[in-house]
Design brief:
Layout (H helix, E strand, L loop, with lengths): L3 E6 L3 H4 L1 H15 L2 E6 L5 H9 L5 E6 L1 H14 L5 E5 L5 H5 L5 H10 L1 E14 L2 E7 L2 E5 H8 L2 H23 L4 E6 L2 E5 L3 E5 L22 E6 L4 H13 L8 E6 L1 E7 L3 E4 L2 E21 L6
Parallel strand pairs: 1-2, 1-3, 3-4
Antiparallel strand pairs: 5-6, 5-15, 7-10, 7-14, 8-9, 8-13, 10-11, 11-12, 13-15, 14-15
Helix pairs in contact: 3-4, 7-8
Length: 307
């Protein structure tokens, strides 16, 4: 029974709509548990510190927001060294992480918090360059360099607010295509070294991204102990535009310029340094080392007989 929750609310999530949504959900949370502590984030990275400090002093730390909030809370829990599970109230723009952990709605989220079970999922340990030197984060869904990072950078809060959770990433794709300049990337895995003007390099832990609209890593499972690695050779703008539907439907893996395989580790470097995206946010830059960490994160999910 989980009845002591520490809740981390990101008011800016969901293109700024999270604060209003949380006000409608707060009473249900108060009725659900014996002890409820609430903290609000003031900017990027704050949820990591809040979750790290709360772990070990509650039954679960609950992320109220979207994929970025869930990712930060998960990172705080992993940094803490405690096995405190992650709870999720998905009120962000995309909510891909929640969906792929089996939480497809707010109602299912409350089911998980009220009487769910713990499941252990893989994470991707990402060591990368940041503004303060070498840093480490854990991705729940994917880490990407190249066009994927550009796409996320161009899918701004304004784009999300204007076009909504489904169309915003398609708009971001077009904006990224106009601005993106391919740099020399090198990707190194157990399967060899791939280098040149690569269009996109991605390590996936789950299938979908972009509000469940892009099937970036077909067949990926968050509990199979493997990374699904995707490396796309140089594409010009016309090629990328023509083949965009394949990326959304997950059929891009059959294209002759795409290498798609599983592995446990991927090293990415570039000249010059290239932006690096983790779970929907651009957080740093190359060089980066991505390593699968099997069963490293406990998540509260709805009870499912036979699961």
């Amino acid at each position: 029974m989980y009845n002591r929750f520490f809740v981390v609310v990101n008011p800016a999530a969901g293109a700024g709509k999270c604060a209003q949504r949380w006000m409608r959900l707060r009473r249900r949370m108060e009725e659900l548990c014996a002890s409820l502590q609430i903290a609000y984030t003031e900017g990027p990275g704050r949820a990591i510190a809040l979750a790290r400090d709360a772990a070990g002093n509650c039954d679960a730390v609950v992320a109220v927001g979207g994929d970025g909030t869930v990712s930060e809370v998960a990172n705080g829990l992993l940094e803490s060294g405690y096995k405190t599970p992650l709870g999720i109230l998905p009120v962000g723009t995309a909510n891909d992480g929640a969906i792929q952990f089996g939480i497809k709605s707010v109602e299912q989220a409350f089911d998980a918090l009220a009487g769910g079970v713990q499941r252990f999922f893989d994470t991707i340990e990402v060591r990368y360059g940041g503004s303060q030197g070498a840093q480490t984060r854990h991705a729940l869904m994917f880490a990407a360099a190249g066009f994927g990072a550009e796409l996320l950078a161009r899918t701004t809060a304004g784009v999300k607010r204007l076009f909504g959770p489904r169309l915003c990433y398609a708009v971001g794709f077009i904006r990224a295509l106009w601005h993106y300049r391919q740099s020399r990337l090198e990707a190194r895995s157990e399967h060899g070294v791939f280098k040149g003007s690569l269009f996109h390099v991605c390590a996936g832990n789950t299938e979908f991204a972009g509000g469940h609209s892009m099937r970036l890593s077909p067949g990926a499972l968050p509990d199979d102990g493997k990374l699904n690695l995707c490396i796309i050779d140089r594409l010009n703008r016309l090629e990328a535009l023509v083949h965009m539907p394949k990326l959304f439907h997950g059929t891009h893996t059959g294209h002759p310029k795409v290498r798609y395989f599983s592995g446990e580790r991927l090293e990415v470097d570039s000249d010059p340094k290239a932006p690096l995206a983790i779970d929907g946010d651009v957080v740093g830059f190359t060089p980066a080392t991505l390593t699968i960490r099997p069963g490293s994160l406990a998540v509260l999910v709805p009870f499912s007989p036979g699961a």
